[in-house]
Every structure is written in C-alpha cells, then in structure tokens.
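Shapes recur. Our protein:

. . .
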Amino acid sequence: MKQHHVFSFLQRMGKSFMLPIAVLPVAGIFLGVGSSLTNETTIAALHLESVLGQGTFLYSVLILLKQVGKILFDNLPLIFAVSIALGMSKRRKEVAALAAIIAFFVMHATINALLCLDGSIVNGVVSGQALDGSITWVCGMLSLEMGVFGGIIVGLGVSYLHNRFYQIQLPSVISFYEGERFVPIVCAVTYVFVGVLMYFVWPPLQHGVYNLGRLISDSGYFGTFIYGVIKRSLVPFGLHHVWYMPFYQSALGGVQMVNGSMISGAQNIFFAQLSDPSVTHFSVDATKFFSGEFIFMIFGLPGAALAMYQCANPEAKKKTASLLLSAALTSALTGITEPIEFSFLFVAPLLYVVHVFLAATCFVIAQALQVAIGFTFSAGLLDFTLFGILQGNAKTNWITVVLLGLVYFFVYYGVFKFLIVKCDLKTPGRDESIKVFDKKKYDFSFDKSLIDPRSQMIVQGLGGRSNFTDLDCCITRLRATIKDDSLINEGVLKKSGAAAIMCQPNAIQIIYGPQASNIKTKLDEYMLNVPESYDFDDKEVVLETKTQFELECLVNGEVMPIEEASDSMFAHKLMGDGIMIRPSDGVVVAPCDGIISMVYPTKHAIGITIDDNTQILIHFGTDSAKLNGKGFELLVKPNQKVKAGDVLWNADLTYIKENALDENIIVVFTKIKDGAELEKKYGKMQCHDMMLRVKG
C-alpha cells in the first residue's frame, strides 16, 4: 500500500510539471539557436562575420532570442516551485503559488546571507574558497547551485503547509491571520530553517561530486561510462554543472600542447585544435566528454518520444503529440533535453534509469570508435553540423554518429515502448486519473454533507449565483458586484452572521469581522462542489426522509471525508461509502448496537452486523495489518453482542502512528439498504457525538 501511495504521489507531482514543460521546448530552441549562432568561434568557422557578426541585424535578433530563452532556463527552479505548489495544493491554489514564490526567495536569501558570513561571497563576488560551479545567481542573488531540486524542495514543502493550514482557525485576537493569510507566513518562517539546513547539507554533496570526478578522469572506458551515468543522473538536481565543469575547463579534462601552447580542459583543448590548421584529427581524449551526447540527444530521445506517443491513449494522442514533438525537436536541434526528460522522469522513474544507462553507453561507444566532436552549448544538430559535419569526417568521424544514432533511435524506441506497456507506466497521454476523478463530469451521487449552511445562505441572500460576480474579501468584509439589486435579501445575509450590510448600486459589502477570509474560502468551496440547484432547495438540504439509525463517533478526534483516506481502496469507495476519523486517543467504542460478525486475525479491523440489511467495517490504521496485532488490545470477539458505547479497542495510538502509514480509523458500509442515503457530519468530535445518519 505504501508503494502505491508513493507511486500515486509521484504521478501527481509529474502532472504538476506539465505546465512548465510545455513552455520549455520554445525556450530551448530560442536559447540553443541564439547561443550557437552568436558564438564567435561558430561565426568565424562559417565565415559569416558580415551576416552574423556584432552590429548586424541578425545578430541583434539572435541575442534577443538567446536572452528570452536564457531567462526561462535561469529561473527554472522558481518556475517548478510554483508549478508544484499549484499542482499539489487542494484548494486556493493561487495562495499556494504566492507562498511558493515567497518561500523560494526566503530560502535562497538565507543561503546567500550565510555564504556572505562565511566568506564564500565577498562584495557580491564568489571568492576563491568556493568550489567552481557550486555558487550561481538565483533571482538576483548569489546562492548555492541547487538546480530544479531546489524548486522541488520548495514546491513540495509549500503544498504540504498550504494543505495543512489554509483553513486554520486562530484565536479571535489574531483571527485576521487565519485561513489562507496564514500560509505565506508559515512558509516564510519554515524556509528560513530550510535555507539554513541546505547551507550545511548541499556543499558536502557538491564536494563529493567534484572529488568523484577526479577519480573518474583516469579510469579509461569504465571511467567514461561512469562519467556518463553520473552526468545524466545529476541533471534533475542541477548538480551536473558541478560535475562536468571541471572536466570542461580544468586539467581533469586533460592537458595537451596545441599550436605551441599548453592547454588544459577538454573544451579548451577542442576549441584550440579547432583554430589550429595543422590538426588532422581532434583529440578523442578531450572530446570523449562530448561526443556521445550527440547520439542520444539527436537520435535516442526522439525515439523515446515516438514510443511515448504511440503508447498514449487514443483520445489523448493529439495533445500528447504536440508536447512530445516540440520536446523531441528541442533535444535534436539544440541538445536541451529537460523538456523530454522531465516528461517521464517523475511519472515513470524506471524509464529515466534506463535512459541514464543507454546515454552512458553512448559516451563509451563514441570514444571507442574515435568520434571527436565538441560543442559550445550542447550536443544538438546545430553544433553537430558546425563542429562535426563542416569540419570533415577525417577530423571528427561524424558519419559514425549518424550510423550509431539510427541504431540508438530504435533501441530507445523499442525499450521505452516495451517497458511502458509491460509495466503500465503513466507517461504523457496514459494517465486517466484526471478523467476518473473529474467531479463535474462524474458526479453520479452528490454528497449532501458538502453543503455549508452559511455559504448557502450567503448565496441565497445575494440573489443566486448568477446575480453576483467578482466575489472577493478584505480584512473584515465580503465584496461582490451585483447585477440586480432587487434580488438582495438582507434578512438572509444577517441570518448568516453578517454584522452589517452596505448596499450600493450594483455593489455590496457584507461585514463579518476578521473571519471574513475563512468565510470566503468556504464559500468558494461550496460553489465549486455543490450544484447550483441546491442553493434554494431547502428540502434537499434538510434531507427530510425517514431516519433509519445513527452512528455515534467511536473515538475522540476529527471526523473527515473518506475521500481523504490514504488507502485508495477506501478513498475510491471500492468497499463502500463511509467516513474517516483521525483519533486523538486509543479508546475506540462501538458506534451503534450490533453483533461482531468478523474479527481480523491481526486485530486491526472488525465487522459489525446492525440488521439484515446493514453491515459496517471498522478499519483501524492504514497499512496496519503488518503490525500483526501489536498495539491493538481488542476487547471483543466474534458473535459478541455490543451496545453503542461498548469499548472495542484499547489501542496504543503512539505505536500505531509510528509503525503504520497512519492511525486513521475508517468506517464503511459493506452492506446497506438500496436507496439509503448517508448524512455525514465533519469536524472535531467527542466520543458518542452523532457523526453519521442513515436515511431512506
């Protein structure tokens, strides 16, 4: 069950990445084209100084494209932070987005301050004591290079804090800060401490990557393979810059005499040889850090994109095609692989593991077959043409790349398609969860417990949903634009708790006091979840049908919707409808009269037969069967008659919390009379409070 929970979590996080991923291909093309065709070495190699040189019109256009693409990639961590917070938050997503921006700034500002204090940054300049590539500019601040992983840390943390606190109620003295206003505050405070933690944790990771690089550089083909594995593995964390930069620019990448000068660094050696007319074949020892990337960036990943497209559901293929085609073109043309890699990294991590292995073999094979092609920006078709094809096959062996690339195209295609189908991986176009849980499309049985009486009265007092727009709130009041003033019912609005009402032509202000923000949040949820037909239908709200029986709350705690259960079997109501309680102690009593019809051997669940038509299952804890009864002192046995209030368990709640997935108690109706309806009450309750009524 925990594995399913983790997989579901990764899927939801993967879906949160789709919005920024959709814009990355365009940004990648802009950055790749702009960077390659404004590079002085490239311009000189093509003898196009008169067309692409500084001061020309095309040069200005290309610089513009380069800067537009660069700003998006430079701020990719922030973009992902906001996207994850948006995608993972349950309600009031705009508040989560704002909180993510605030938390991101706070975390990096904290790191920046600590780096200044320890001397890593002096007068706005990185000092010599810092590892090359370990500190970079983040939103105008020098901070640790954390890459997209920094944005993921912020997005996940903020979404958790948002879901936990966006409806918090505070004492009346500070009630102005309750609800959604509390979220940015708690996020800002929390990420001061996260920034301090990252300041201590992240640099050792960076140094470990750097030291490993020194070991790799002298290990032959095996070292090349490990180099490729580590470089691709570090891409999601932004640590690949720390990894490859020493090879590109320092003696780790080699030292050679070129045209009378001693040159160190793989990239420096390649470009020195590029301008040396006496070179007959570029150095394979230097270009082994580059050449293999052309194979999987131009050929391999487009093959993977084709496999994902063909595995997409028929109704999703059109939308999937536009995403994957642009991502594949970006990889092939510019060598920017994030758009396509991130499309499967989090929703299907197995594919990324396979991709890392295949990419590493490309490095080794290119080195073994004497391929020698470097690049300025990345291993895309532009650099392949400039530094491979145009330099001649004698110097570069570029034809070998084409032949190997065709092989790898089909290898990537075949392996990805096989794994997607075999393991049912939810790559783009295959995840149907949005359709399955689209409430507006699949609301077959409306849960009337979602009706908030105050929100219903406010809608009635405003003349119905169609009579008002631009609903908003300030510190103490709700504001709305009114279409027909004559439909306003001040009596109903005052009944909802309004202290005063201010009506103006086509506008209204309803004064509730400091709790106005919380009222607005609940009103938004009401209008999102409750069909409009229930706004004025009092009979439907009251549910005036014959009551069969009631279930009392069986433990002190908080009664919650069953849809929030961690176990998808209960959350999707596969065993029946019901309710969930988060207990505050371990004394659990019978919610009604009945007979114990079943006791699980592991003592974590029992069944109660109420009458011929009704049976309930009480399930204590999620993934608690593995405890084998430890922590559960069960005080009833099969066929025993119980009365409401009889003690069922005297459980060790602390032990269950620490060793199960959670301690929540699920009560579901495994058998119930046809046509019966459940009226549920949510919130904090004491034992014996009425929590559920069966009617009909």
Residues 92-217 form one domain.
